[in-house]
Design goal:
The protein is an alpha/beta fold. It is built from 11 helices and 13 strands. Helix 6 links the parallel strand 9 and strand 10. Helix 1 packs across helix 9 and helix 9 runs antiparallel to helix 10.
Protein backbone atom coordinates (compact mmCIF):
# COMPACT_ATOMS: atom_id res chain seq x y z
CA UNK A 1 0.00 0.00 0.00
CA UNK A 2 1.22 3.52 -0.79
CA UNK A 3 2.18 5.50 2.27
CA UNK A 4 0.28 8.69 2.97
CA UNK A 5 2.10 11.85 2.00
CA UNK A 6 3.67 14.00 4.72
CA UNK A 7 3.81 17.73 4.10
CA UNK A 8 7.18 19.30 3.41
CA UNK A 9 6.42 21.68 6.29
CA UNK A 10 8.10 19.14 8.61
CA UNK A 11 11.06 20.83 10.31
CA UNK A 12 14.11 19.20 11.85
CA UNK A 13 13.93 21.86 14.58
CA UNK A 14 10.40 20.83 15.60
CA UNK A 15 10.07 20.16 19.31
CA UNK A 16 7.39 18.88 21.64
CA UNK A 17 4.61 16.30 21.73
CA UNK A 18 0.86 16.67 21.29
CA UNK A 19 -0.88 14.22 23.67
CA UNK A 20 -4.42 13.73 22.36
CA UNK A 21 -7.11 11.26 23.35
CA UNK A 22 -8.41 9.73 26.55
CA UNK A 23 -8.56 11.65 29.82
CA UNK A 24 -9.78 9.46 32.64
CA UNK A 25 -9.80 9.51 36.42
CA UNK A 26 -8.93 6.07 37.78
CA UNK A 27 -10.15 4.81 41.13
CA UNK A 28 -7.75 1.91 41.69
CA UNK A 29 -9.00 -0.66 44.21
CA UNK A 30 -6.66 -3.28 45.59
CA UNK A 31 -8.72 -6.40 46.29
CA UNK A 32 -7.81 -9.68 47.96
CA UNK A 33 -9.25 -11.91 45.22
CA UNK A 34 -11.60 -11.83 42.25
CA UNK A 35 -15.02 -12.86 43.56
CA UNK A 36 -17.48 -15.26 41.99
CA UNK A 37 -20.94 -13.96 41.10
CA UNK A 38 -22.83 -12.86 44.24
CA UNK A 39 -19.65 -13.28 46.31
CA UNK A 40 -17.69 -10.62 48.21
CA UNK A 41 -14.11 -9.40 47.93
CA UNK A 42 -12.38 -7.07 50.35
CA UNK A 43 -10.87 -3.76 49.25
CA UNK A 44 -7.63 -3.17 51.13
CA UNK A 45 -6.81 0.17 49.50
CA UNK A 46 -8.29 2.67 47.03
CA UNK A 47 -6.22 5.28 45.23
CA UNK A 48 -7.40 8.14 43.00
CA UNK A 49 -5.23 8.88 39.99
CA UNK A 50 -5.10 10.09 36.41
CA UNK A 51 -5.58 7.53 33.66
CA UNK A 52 -6.09 7.15 29.92
CA UNK A 53 -3.61 7.26 27.08
CA UNK A 54 -3.26 11.01 26.64
CA UNK A 55 -3.30 11.67 30.39
CA UNK A 56 -0.73 9.01 31.20
CA UNK A 57 1.78 9.90 28.50
CA UNK A 58 1.47 13.60 29.39
CA UNK A 59 2.19 12.80 33.03
CA UNK A 60 5.02 10.38 32.31
CA UNK A 61 6.74 12.69 29.82
CA UNK A 62 6.42 15.69 32.14
CA UNK A 63 8.14 13.72 34.90
CA UNK A 64 10.76 12.30 32.54
CA UNK A 65 11.64 15.62 30.90
CA UNK A 66 10.14 18.70 32.61
CA UNK A 67 11.52 20.97 29.87
CA UNK A 68 9.74 19.08 27.06
CA UNK A 69 6.89 21.02 25.43
CA UNK A 70 3.65 19.09 25.90
CA UNK A 71 0.22 19.88 24.46
CA UNK A 72 -2.65 17.97 26.11
CA UNK A 73 -5.73 17.58 23.89
CA UNK A 74 -9.07 16.06 24.84
CA UNK A 75 -12.34 16.54 26.68
CA UNK A 76 -13.27 16.51 30.37
CA UNK A 77 -16.39 17.53 32.28
CA UNK A 78 -17.29 20.37 34.65
CA UNK A 79 -17.22 18.10 37.70
CA UNK A 80 -15.01 17.03 40.58
CA UNK A 81 -13.13 14.57 38.38
CA UNK A 82 -12.56 17.32 35.79
CA UNK A 83 -11.17 19.60 38.47
CA UNK A 84 -8.92 16.75 39.60
CA UNK A 85 -7.49 16.54 36.06
CA UNK A 86 -6.89 20.31 35.89
CA UNK A 87 -5.17 20.40 39.27
CA UNK A 88 -3.00 17.49 38.22
CA UNK A 89 -1.84 19.31 35.07
CA UNK A 90 -1.26 22.49 37.04
CA UNK A 91 1.09 20.60 39.36
CA UNK A 92 2.96 19.31 36.31
CA UNK A 93 3.21 22.86 34.92
CA UNK A 94 1.64 21.72 31.65
CA UNK A 95 -0.55 24.05 29.58
CA UNK A 96 -4.27 23.31 29.23
CA UNK A 97 -5.26 25.50 26.27
CA UNK A 98 -6.36 22.52 24.16
CA UNK A 99 -8.20 20.60 26.89
CA UNK A 100 -11.94 21.25 26.52
CA UNK A 101 -14.39 21.22 29.43
CA UNK A 102 -17.82 20.14 28.24
CA UNK A 103 -21.00 21.24 30.04
CA UNK A 104 -23.44 18.64 31.38
CA UNK A 105 -21.04 15.73 30.72
CA UNK A 106 -19.12 13.85 33.39
CA UNK A 107 -15.39 13.31 33.14
CA UNK A 108 -14.55 9.77 32.07
CA UNK A 109 -13.64 7.54 34.98
CA UNK A 110 -12.71 3.93 35.62
CA UNK A 111 -13.01 1.68 38.64
CA UNK A 112 -9.92 -0.52 38.42
CA UNK A 113 -9.98 -3.77 40.39
CA UNK A 114 -6.42 -4.89 41.00
CA UNK A 115 -5.54 -8.26 42.53
CA UNK A 116 -1.98 -7.78 43.75
CA UNK A 117 0.40 -10.11 41.95
CA UNK A 118 -2.17 -10.98 39.31
CA UNK A 119 -4.00 -8.74 36.84
CA UNK A 120 -6.54 -5.95 36.83
CA UNK A 121 -10.10 -5.47 35.56
CA UNK A 122 -11.61 -2.19 34.39
CA UNK A 123 -15.15 -0.83 34.79
CA UNK A 124 -15.25 2.22 32.54
CA UNK A 125 -17.65 5.17 32.16
CA UNK A 126 -16.80 7.00 28.91
CA UNK A 127 -18.34 10.38 29.73
CA UNK A 128 -16.55 13.26 28.01
CA UNK A 129 -14.25 10.88 26.12
CA UNK A 130 -17.27 9.61 24.20
CA UNK A 131 -17.91 13.18 23.01
CA UNK A 132 -14.32 13.89 21.91
CA UNK A 133 -14.39 14.57 18.16
CA UNK A 134 -12.61 16.35 15.33
CA UNK A 135 -14.27 19.57 16.44
CA UNK A 136 -12.17 19.50 19.62
CA UNK A 137 -8.78 19.23 17.84
CA UNK A 138 -7.46 22.51 16.45
CA UNK A 139 -4.61 21.23 14.28
CA UNK A 140 -3.82 24.68 12.86
CA UNK A 141 -3.39 26.14 16.35
CA UNK A 142 -1.27 23.20 17.48
CA UNK A 143 0.89 23.39 14.36
CA UNK A 144 1.88 26.97 15.20
CA UNK A 145 3.85 25.54 18.15
CA UNK A 146 5.78 23.29 15.70
CA UNK A 147 5.46 20.08 17.75
CA UNK A 148 7.47 17.16 16.48
CA UNK A 149 5.06 14.36 17.43
CA UNK A 150 1.30 13.97 17.46
CA UNK A 151 0.21 11.12 19.75
CA UNK A 152 -3.35 9.75 19.75
CA UNK A 153 -4.42 7.22 22.37
CA UNK A 154 -6.42 5.24 22.47
CA UNK A 155 -7.97 4.31 19.16
CA UNK A 156 -10.73 1.80 20.04
CA UNK A 157 -11.78 3.80 23.13
CA UNK A 158 -12.83 7.09 21.52
CA UNK A 159 -16.43 6.66 20.40
CA UNK A 160 -16.64 9.58 17.97
CA UNK A 161 -13.12 9.15 16.62
CA UNK A 162 -13.62 5.41 16.02
CA UNK A 163 -16.94 5.63 14.20
CA UNK A 164 -16.63 4.03 10.75
CA UNK A 165 -18.17 6.09 7.95
CA UNK A 166 -19.76 4.73 4.79
CA UNK A 167 -16.47 5.34 2.92
CA UNK A 168 -14.51 3.28 5.48
CA UNK A 169 -12.85 6.35 7.02
CA UNK A 170 -12.86 7.50 10.65
CA UNK A 171 -12.38 10.85 12.36
CA UNK A 172 -9.18 9.48 13.88
CA UNK A 173 -7.82 8.91 10.36
CA UNK A 174 -8.79 12.47 9.38
CA UNK A 175 -7.08 14.00 12.42
CA UNK A 176 -3.92 11.94 11.93
CA UNK A 177 -3.85 12.90 8.26
CA UNK A 178 -4.12 16.59 9.15
CA UNK A 179 -1.34 16.25 11.71
CA UNK A 180 0.94 14.67 9.09
CA UNK A 181 0.05 17.36 6.54
CA UNK A 182 1.23 19.89 9.12
CA UNK A 183 4.56 18.12 9.47
CA UNK A 184 4.01 16.12 12.66
CA UNK A 185 5.15 12.55 13.19
CA UNK A 186 2.06 10.58 14.19
CA UNK A 187 2.11 7.95 16.92
CA UNK A 188 -0.89 5.85 17.91
CA UNK A 189 -1.59 3.53 20.82
CA UNK A 190 -4.46 1.04 20.94
CA UNK A 191 -6.51 -0.44 23.78
CA UNK A 192 -7.54 -4.04 24.34
CA UNK A 193 -11.28 -3.42 24.04
CA UNK A 194 -13.43 -6.03 22.30
CA UNK A 195 -15.03 -4.59 19.15
CA UNK A 196 -16.56 -6.31 16.13
CA UNK A 197 -14.94 -3.75 13.78
CA UNK A 198 -11.54 -3.66 15.52
CA UNK A 199 -9.43 -4.50 12.47
CA UNK A 200 -11.40 -2.18 10.17
CA UNK A 201 -11.06 0.77 12.55
CA UNK A 202 -7.31 0.27 12.86
CA UNK A 203 -6.94 -0.21 9.09
CA UNK A 204 -8.74 3.09 8.44
CA UNK A 205 -5.99 5.00 10.28
CA UNK A 206 -2.99 2.86 9.29
CA UNK A 207 -1.86 4.96 6.27
CA UNK A 208 -1.76 8.06 8.51
CA UNK A 209 0.15 6.42 11.36
CA UNK A 210 3.94 6.71 11.43
CA UNK A 211 4.48 4.65 14.60
CA UNK A 212 1.94 2.19 15.99
CA UNK A 213 2.38 0.89 19.56
CA UNK A 214 0.32 -2.05 20.80
CA UNK A 215 0.38 -5.24 22.84
CA UNK A 216 -0.05 -8.83 21.71
CA UNK A 217 -3.82 -8.88 22.33
CA UNK A 218 -4.33 -5.72 20.30
CA UNK A 219 -2.06 -7.04 17.54
CA UNK A 220 -4.18 -10.18 17.27
CA UNK A 221 -7.42 -8.19 17.13
CA UNK A 222 -6.04 -5.71 14.61
CA UNK A 223 -4.71 -8.36 12.22
CA UNK A 224 -6.67 -11.54 12.89
CA UNK A 225 -3.37 -13.34 13.51
CA UNK A 226 -3.77 -15.36 16.69
CA UNK A 227 -0.90 -15.53 19.14
CA UNK A 228 0.82 -18.91 19.01
CA UNK A 229 3.19 -20.78 21.34
CA UNK A 230 5.89 -19.39 19.06
CA UNK A 231 5.08 -15.88 20.21
CA UNK A 232 8.01 -14.37 18.32
CA UNK A 233 6.72 -15.80 15.06
CA UNK A 234 3.14 -14.57 15.51
CA UNK A 235 4.24 -11.09 16.62
CA UNK A 236 6.62 -10.81 13.67
CA UNK A 237 3.83 -11.78 11.28
CA UNK A 238 1.42 -9.30 12.90
CA UNK A 239 3.99 -6.52 12.68
CA UNK A 240 4.62 -7.19 8.99
CA UNK A 241 0.86 -7.30 8.35
CA UNK A 242 0.34 -3.91 10.00
CA UNK A 243 3.21 -2.41 8.01
CA UNK A 244 1.63 -3.79 4.83
CA UNK A 245 -1.69 -2.19 5.83
CA UNK A 246 -0.06 1.23 5.58
CA UNK A 247 1.80 2.09 8.80
CA UNK A 248 4.57 4.35 7.56
CA UNK A 249 7.60 3.90 9.81
CA UNK A 250 7.36 1.15 12.43
CA UNK A 251 5.13 -1.09 14.49
CA UNK A 252 6.16 -1.72 18.11
CA UNK A 253 4.53 -4.71 19.82
CA UNK A 254 5.18 -5.38 23.49
CA UNK A 255 4.47 -8.34 25.74
CA UNK A 256 5.61 -8.73 29.35
CA UNK A 257 9.38 -8.61 29.28
CA UNK A 258 9.91 -8.40 25.51
CA UNK A 259 9.31 -5.86 22.73
CA UNK A 260 9.62 -6.00 18.94
CA UNK A 261 10.18 -3.09 16.58
CA UNK A 262 9.32 -3.91 12.94
CA UNK A 263 10.05 -1.14 10.46
CA UNK A 264 8.94 -0.36 6.93
CA UNK A 265 12.38 -1.36 5.58
CA UNK A 266 11.79 -4.96 6.63
CA UNK A 267 14.09 -4.85 9.67
CA UNK A 268 13.16 -6.19 13.10
CA UNK A 269 14.66 -5.38 16.49
CA UNK A 270 13.94 -7.32 19.69
CA UNK A 271 14.77 -6.09 23.19
CA UNK A 272 14.25 -8.04 26.42
CA UNK A 273 13.49 -6.17 29.64
CA UNK A 274 15.59 -6.53 32.75
CA UNK A 275 13.83 -8.86 35.21
CA UNK A 276 11.87 -7.34 38.07
CA UNK A 277 11.15 -9.15 41.34
CA UNK A 278 7.51 -10.07 41.87
CA UNK A 279 7.49 -8.48 45.33
CA UNK A 280 8.39 -5.14 43.72
CA UNK A 281 5.30 -5.13 41.52
CA UNK A 282 2.48 -3.18 43.13
CA UNK A 283 0.17 -2.81 40.13
CA UNK A 284 0.35 -3.36 36.36
CA UNK A 285 -2.12 -0.49 35.77
CA UNK A 286 -0.46 1.99 33.41
CA UNK A 287 2.63 -0.06 32.54
CA UNK A 288 1.63 -0.15 28.87
CA UNK A 289 1.28 3.63 28.76
CA UNK A 290 4.64 4.03 30.50
CA UNK A 291 6.14 1.80 27.81
CA UNK A 292 4.48 3.94 25.12
CA UNK A 293 5.83 7.09 26.79
CA UNK A 294 9.34 5.70 26.40
CA UNK A 295 8.71 4.98 22.73
CA UNK A 296 7.46 8.54 22.19
CA UNK A 297 10.45 10.09 23.95
CA UNK A 298 12.89 7.84 22.10
CA UNK A 299 11.40 8.81 18.73
CA UNK A 300 11.43 12.48 19.71
CA UNK A 301 15.08 12.32 20.75
CA UNK A 302 16.26 10.06 17.93
CA UNK A 303 17.50 7.24 20.16
CA UNK A 304 17.02 4.49 17.56
CA UNK A 305 14.94 1.31 17.92
CA UNK A 306 16.95 -0.64 20.49
CA UNK A 307 17.72 2.18 22.92
CA UNK A 308 14.16 3.44 22.56
CA UNK A 309 12.79 0.04 23.57
CA UNK A 310 15.27 -0.16 26.47
CA UNK A 311 13.93 3.19 27.65
CA UNK A 312 10.33 1.99 27.21
CA UNK A 313 11.02 -1.14 29.28
CA UNK A 314 12.70 0.99 31.95
CA UNK A 315 9.70 3.30 32.29
CA UNK A 316 7.26 0.38 32.34
CA UNK A 317 9.26 -1.27 35.14
CA UNK A 318 9.25 1.98 37.12
CA UNK A 319 5.48 2.27 36.77
CA UNK A 320 4.92 -1.30 38.00
CA UNK A 321 6.20 -0.17 41.41
CA UNK A 322 3.41 2.37 42.01
CA UNK A 323 -0.34 1.80 42.58
CA UNK A 324 -1.72 4.19 39.95
CA UNK A 325 -1.54 4.44 36.15
CA UNK A 326 1.44 6.80 36.24
CA UNK A 327 4.22 7.78 38.59
CA UNK A 328 7.62 6.45 39.55
CA UNK A 329 9.11 7.72 36.27
CA UNK A 330 12.81 8.67 36.55
CA UNK A 331 14.15 12.01 35.39
CA UNK A 332 15.95 11.81 32.04
CA UNK A 333 19.27 12.61 33.73
CA UNK A 334 19.10 9.16 35.38
CA UNK A 335 18.67 7.37 32.07
CA UNK A 336 22.11 7.08 30.40
CA UNK A 337 23.20 4.33 32.79
CA UNK A 338 19.89 2.53 32.31
CA UNK A 339 19.67 2.59 28.51
CA UNK A 340 23.33 2.42 27.53
CA UNK A 341 24.39 5.89 26.52
CA UNK A 342 23.57 9.60 26.50
CA UNK A 343 20.31 10.98 25.17
CA UNK A 344 20.52 12.84 21.88
CA UNK A 345 18.86 16.23 21.63
CA UNK A 346 15.89 16.37 19.26
CA UNK A 347 17.56 14.48 16.41
CA UNK A 348 15.59 14.13 13.19
CA UNK A 349 14.41 10.50 13.02
CA UNK A 350 13.11 10.63 9.44
Amino acid sequence: MNRAYRSASYRDSANGIVCAGNWIVDIVHSIDHWPKKNDLARISDATLGIGGGAANVTTNLAELSPDLSLFPVGCIGHDDYGRFVLEHLKRLNVGMDHLVQLPDVETAHTHVMNVVGESRTFFYAGGANDKFSQAHVDIASLARHQPKLFYLGYIMLLEQMDLLRADGRTSAAEILGQARENGMITCVDLVSAAHAEYSKIVAASAPYIDYLVLNETEAARATGIENSPDMKGSLSKAGRTLIASGVNEAVVIHIPGVAMWADANGDEFWVTAAPIAENEIISPVGAGDAFCSGILFGIHEGLGPERTMKLAHTLAAANLKVPTANGGIPHKDELPALIGGPIATNTNTK
